C-alpha cells in the first residue's frame, strides 16, 4: 500500500486507496438508477395517513403503567405489585374480587369471596414461623386459612421447594389456629416435583382474572392493566 502525507486532500487519498484495493473487491455491481422522481404531494399524503396509527401505537405502548414502570419479568417487583393489588385496604372491593377470582381458579377448597369479606391480610417475602428458609413470595391469611403463593416467571424451582413451603404453611396454620392451609404455584409451567400436587395457575390465567376488573374505577383500571402486563410473563 502507498503511504500518504497528512496534508493530502481526502479525495486524492481515497482515490489512491481504492486503486490499491481494486484487486480485492469482487462482485461489485452498479446499482440501477431510478429515473422517475417521487411525487412530493403523494408522499406528503402518505406521511399524513401514517400520523394517526402511529400516534395510537405510541399511546397504547405508553398507556399501561406497568409497562412504563418497567416491571418486565422481575419476580420480586411483580410479586410486590400483585400483593398490593390484592390488598383490600388499598384497592377495596376490586382487590377482594381479584383475589377471590384467583382462588376460585386455583381450587374450590381455597377461600371464597364470603371468607375474604370477613377480613384478610396479604404479605410479601413473608418469613413464616420466623425462619428465613421458609420465606414465601406471598402469603394470604384469613380468619380460617393460611395460603402461600409461590411465584415463578422464568426461574426454576429448587428441589423440594413447594413441599418445604407446604410444610411451613401447615406449621403456620397450626401456630395461628387456622383450620385450612395450601400453597398455590403461579408459574408459566407446572411443578417438576411429581411427588407433590399443588394448585397451579399460569400468568395468562391470572391475566384473564385481572381483566374482569371494572376499568371505570382507578383500582379496577390498575388491576386490568396488570392483567395485560401478565400476558408478557409466559403461557
UniProtKB/TrEMBL annotation:
It comes from the Bacteria. It holds the Pfam family PDDEXK_4. This is PD-(D/E)XK nuclease.
